[in-house]
Write a structure and sequence with these properties.
Number of strands: 0
Order of helices and strands: HHHHH
Structural class: mainly alpha
Helix content: over 70%
Number of helices: 5
Shape: elongated
Strand content: under 5%
Low-confidence stretches: none
Largest sheet: none
Radius of gyration: 17 Å
Length: 131
C-alpha cells in the first residue's frame, strides 16, 4: 500500500459507494416485498421503484469508477465530473428519505469524483499566468 494515489483512493471510494447503492437497492426490494405481504400495495410499489432507481445509479457509479481506472485513466477530469454528477443526481432524486445506504453511497461517489478532479484542477491552476 505504498502507492496510494488519488486515483486509487478514488476507485476504492467509488466501488464502496457502488456497493452501498446495490445493498440499499436490495434492502428496498426486501422491504417492498414485506410491505406487499402486509397488504400495502402502494408502499411496495414505491419501494420497488426506489430499488430500481438505486440499481441504475449504482450501475452508473460502478461504470464511471471502472472507466476512471481503465479506459479513462488518462482523462481523470472526465470521470471525476461524471462521478460528481451521478452522486448529485442520486442525492437529489433520493432526497433525504429513509434510504440511508443510498445517501452514503452518494457521498462516497462524490468524494471519489472530487479526488479524480484534483490532478486536472492542479494542472489547470499551474498553467495560469502569474499576475
Amino acid at each position: 500500500m505504498t502507492d496510494l494515489s488519488e486515483q486509487r483512493i478514488a476507485s476504492v471510494l467509488g466501488y464502496l459507494g457502488t456497493a452501498l447503492f446495490v445493498v440499499g437497492a436490495l434492502v428496498a426490494l426486501l422491504s417492498g416485498t414485506v410491505a406487499l405481504a402486509g397488504g400495502r400495495l402502494l408502499g411496495a410499489l414505491g419501494l420497488w421503484s426506489e430499488s430500481g432507481l438505486l440499481l441504475v445509479v449504482g450501475a452508473l457509479a460502478g461504470l464511471f469508477t471502472w472507466l476512471a481506472r481503465h479506459d479513462w485513466e488518462a482523462r481523470p477530469g472526465t470521470s471525476g465530473i461524471m462521478l460528481v454528477l451521478v452522486s448529485l443526481v442520486s442525492a437529489v432524486v433520493l432526497g433525504f428519505g429513509a434510504n440511508l445506504l443510498g445517501l452514503l453511497g452518494a457521498v462516497l461517489v462524490f468524494l471519489a469524483g472530487a479526488l479524480c478532479l484534483i490532478s486536472p484542477v492542479g494542472r489547470a491552476l499551474a498553467s495560469l499566468p502569474a499576475a
